Amino acid sequence: MAARRSAEDRREEIVQIAFRHFAEGGYHGTSTEAIAREGGISQPYLFRLFKTKRELFLACIDRCFAGVEAVFEASVRGDTPKERLDTMGRSYSEKLLPDRHSLRFQLQAYAVASDPQFKDRIRARYGGLVRKVASLAGVSVEETWDFFAYGMLVNVISAFDLREFAGQDDWAKAWVSLEE
Predict the structure, then answer these.
(1) How far is CA 124 from the centre of its chain?
(2) Cα–Cα distance for residue pair 116/121, rounded to 1 Å
(3) Does residue 20 fall inside a structural domain?
(4) Which runs of consecutive H residues, i.e. helices, occur in 41-99?
(5) Over its length of 180 residues, how does the chain's per-residue pLDDT go in tens digits?
(6) Are 65 and 128 in contact (CB under 8 A)?
């Protein structure tokens, strides 16, 4: 007989599954029934683990930002703030951008950032990320502006799959070459 898994283990498994579903369908386009089915649990049990779909999405927001912070913390190197910011940026591009679900979920979170049920959490997590980067780099939060502005543009370039059509469109070719 298989050992019973704890509710916390199940919660983590469901967050991983939900993360992928929300990344693809967004908050409003994702069915909790599909998440429960993939997790091999009933929808009522899903709602015992997470009282609401909102609570599940908030757990995914936390997972998303924690993942970005972990990549930055693990990769920061260098003697100067510029070197530290550069290593964090490269690591983000190498480790998170290829993970289409991480990128898409992040963009889905920003898409609902003005929704009253999510805006406080997203704002708090993004602000925490800005402060974390500033601390890791040894700069003020104001000095992280270019890092985050460039990072958001890189997210857009990656979401568009600009590399795929860079040979067909002059602006795509120019932007891809600037990214490198």
Answers:
(1) 14
(2) 10
(3) no
(4) 43-49, 53-75, 81-95
(5) 556 778 889 999 999 999 999 999 999 999 999 999 999 999 999 999 999 999 999 999 999 999 999 999 999 999 999 999 999 999 999 999 889 999 999 999 999 999 999 999 999 999 999 999 999 999 999 999 999 999 999 998 888 888 888 888 888 888 888 766
(6) yes
> Which token pair is 48?
């015992």
Other CB atoms within 10 Å distance of the CB of residue 129: 18
Q: Are 63 and 19 in contact (CB under 8 A)?
A: yes
| Token pair of 179 as six digits | 């990214």
| Number of domains present in the structure of the chain | 1
CB 81 within 8 A of CB 42: no
Query: Within a domain: residue 48?
Result: no
What domain range includes position 142?
Answer: 58-179
Q: Which amino acid is at 21?
A: H
| Cα 7 from Cα 5, distance rounded (Å) | 7
Q: Is 49 exposed, middle or buried (0-12, 13-18, 19+ CB in 10 A)?
A: buried
Furthest CA-CA distance within the chain: 61
Decide: residue 51, CB within 10 A, 0-12 exposed, 13-18 middle, 19+ buried: exposed
Pairwise CA distance, residues 125 & 60, whole Å: 12
Q: Is residue 72 part of a domain?
A: yes
User: Would 9 be classed as within a structural domain?
Assistant: no
